[in-house]
Amino acid sequence: MNFKQVCTEMIRHSDPKKGRGIARFLKGRYEFMGVESKLRRKIANQYLKQDNCPEEIDWEYVDACWDQVFREFQYLALDYLQQRAELLQISDLYKLRRLIQEKPGWDICDQMGRLALNITSREPEGKKQILEWSRYNDSSVRRVAIIHQLDLRGEADEELLTEIIEGNLPTKEPIIKKAITRALSEYSKYKPEFVEDFIWQNSEKMSAEMRREAGKNLPPKE
Questions:
Q1: Model pLDDT for residues 11-44, shown as the tens digit of each residue
Q2: Which residues touch 26 (CB under 8 Å, ≥6 apart)?
Q3: Exposed site from 33, 138, 149, 182, fewest CB < 10 Å?
Q4: Nearest C-alpha neighbor of 14 from the set 28, 32, 2
Q5: What residues form DSSP beta bridges with 47?
Q6: What's the CA gap between 137 and 162, in Å, rounded?
Q7: One-character DSSP codes across 3-62
């Protein structure tokens, strides 16, 4: 991928006023150029077609995007990795974890979770690393581990899900609590019995608010 060309096009289509609005919405943690997602993907895709190495991940391109101040460049990197997701290997989990740590944020967690899931779905031994993520001393890394099975819907690895969530129940961090309740409430749409039993088994470790949020999609009791 030609980063310089992509970067030039991104700058040409930037809208600073719109970027400032997005930055305020995300509480000013990152700066934005004001390039909308559809346009961002259109810009990147025209150069993706010219990629001379379609059978391998261009990590130099990913790192170049990740090093930029404007948040849209991190989104570009994630778009690219999603398009090359089938090429990701277990060894790349370390790289994904590094990216999460360097530029954390709730806005990238879902895509990072999908990338991790793509790897572990093809190479189940990678689940051990995801379990390690769930114990990591970085809340963003732990958050990705907690929600990474969302796209599996009712086919999640329940043993892994249980171990990850139970290991994080003692947390006092709001973003981890939200990740836990999100993972449970989404899974309850497909496996309500599992989630109901989990809440009952761990009721003393969960606040009333967490129990309520985790069980909000459970069918009403007769």
A1: 888 888 888 887 787 776 789 888 888 988 888 8
A2: 32, 71, 105, 107
A3: 138
A4: 32
A5: none
A6: 19
A7: HHHHHHHHHHT--HHHHHHHHHHTTTSSB-----HHHHHHHHHHHHTT-S-TTS--HHHH
Q: What are the DSSP calls for 91-156, one per residue? A: THHHHHHHHHHHS--HHHHHHHHHHHHHHHHH-GGGHHHHHHHTTSS-HHHHHHHHHTTGGGGGG-
Which residue's structure tokens are 């929600």?
A: 147
User: Is the distance from CB of 147 to CB of 117 less than 8 angstroms?
Assistant: no
pTM of the model: 0.91
pLDDT, tens digit (0-9, with 9 covering 90-100), for 140-150:
999 999 999 99
Please answer whether residues 100 and 142 qualify as being in contact, where contact means their C-beta atoms are separated by less than 8 angstroms: no
C-alpha torsion sign, points 84, 26, 164, 159: negative
Given a cut of 80, whether residue 79 has pLDDT beyond it is yes
Question: Distance between CA 77 and CA 83 in Å, rounded?
Answer: 10
Q: Is 178 exposed, middle or buried (0-12, 13-18, 19+ CB in 10 A)?
A: middle
Q: Are 53 and 46 in contact (CB under 8 A)?
A: no
pLDDT at position 53: 61
The answer to whether 35 and 10 have CB atoms below 8 angstroms apart is: yes
Rounded Cα–Cα distance for residues 179 and 146 (Å): 6
DSSP state of 87: G
Residue 208 makes CB contacts below 8 A (sequence gap 6+) with: none
What is the pLDDT at residue 62? 95
